[in-house]
Amino acid sequence: MRTATLVALLVLSAVLAALELLVQPSYIGAIPVPLGMFLVLATMPWMVFAAGEVSPSPLVAGGPLWIWVLVTGVLGLAGPGGDTLLPATWQTLLLVLAAVLCGLIPLRRIVDRGDRERAARNAASPGGTPTRTG
Q1: What's the pTM value of the predicted model, to 2 decimals?
Q2: Is 47 within 8 Å of 64 (Cβ atoms)?
Q3: Mean per-residue pLDDT for 78-95?
Q4: Domain boundaries, the chain
């Protein structure tokens, strides 16, 4: 069940990365509206927290972020047919910064929570000696 949840989150992250790349250069009239950035702001923290529920390991909890960066890099820099979906514009910078920050902030909270839980277990062990968990 936990593996299926993680796989679903990683697939969702890849699909959202592609969708966010496609809608990022949107315009309403003559005004650029970075829709992909708004989508990543709404979804990335949730996906990282959900992956953190599967495992507090930074590699697992950050899986949606790592997949997002990989898919965005591959599709954005070497897109289909040689097209570049990540042009050198301020909208691209917003998309990448929003995704990375919205992924790293919850990832840091997950790592801190794991550190606190390990410290509490070590303090509760007989004699206060650290225990090795593996």
Answers
A1: 0.82
A2: yes
A3: 80
A4: 2-122
